[in-house]
Amino acid sequence: MKSSYARYGALVLVLAGIAVIVWTAVADPDTAPTFVEAADSPGTQPAPAVASDTDDVTQASSDSAATPAPPTTSPAVTTTTESPEPIPVLGAAFTLSRLDGWLNTDATSLEEIRERNTLTVVQFWTFGCRNCKKTLDALGQLHADFRDRGVEVVGVHSPEFAYEADVDNIVEAAAELGVVWPIALDTTKHNFHLWQEGPTGYWPRVYIIDSENQIRFDRRGDGAHTYRELHATVERLLAQASA
After folding, report:
1. Which of 83, 112, 168, 196 is buried most, with the most CB atoms less than 10 Å from its CB?
2. Strands in the chain per DSSP E
């Protein structure tokens, strides 16, 4: 009997303790026990979002749609087209005299060739000259581009060395180098010195002669820019002649 009373007494004490805990929790929440929830529990506060590149683009697009940017106007651009410098007249050209003949043509004088064409390009050269050889592609292109438009090229072959004065060597070299335009044989270099002022002559040296026998272009050397300018000047002179 005593043990029954003891069990009932213990049960009463447990119930009383529980009642005290419940009453305390209801009466003062700050003193209630704390329970930590797992991160994925429904009541968990979400972590702050981290913006991505896509978010930035989307936000920028949203802002742009909400508040249109003021229209921008490009500053007016003023363009001016300057006329090229006039092509100078450098004086009357000499004739070609005391020649030993012609190759690649049935003409017998520079005047005859000039009368057949609007422009005549005259180059002093010799087949053994390395600098002269560097110009031949450009001259060949000019000949191909303008031959049917009234432009003829004349190569005045003025040899520097004895082997360059041999006509057979000139014919062979011209074929190898692709020189198909008329060649005037200035074996004694009479014209080489007549056309070039002072005691020194140059290989190569190139001129443009117009239909009035006026020199419109005079350059020496093998620079690529010289032959680009030569090509452009021929183009301009032809345009002026046909205007």
Report:
1. 196
2. 102-103, 119-125, 151-157, 183-185, 205-209, 215-220
Domain boundaries, the chain: 102-242
Q: Cβ(189)–Cβ(60) under 8 Å?
A: no
Residue-wise over 16-30: b if at least 16 C-beta within 10 A, else e? eeeeeeeeeeeeeee
**Judging by DSSP bridges, how do beta strands 183-185 and 102-103 pair with one another?**
antiparallel
* Side-by-side strand order, sheet with 102-103: 102-103, 183-185, 151-157, 119-125, 205-209, 215-220
Q: What is the pTM of this model?
A: 0.67
What's the CATH number for 102-242? 3.40.30.10
For the chain, give the number of residues. Answer: 243
Tokens coding 77: 């651009």
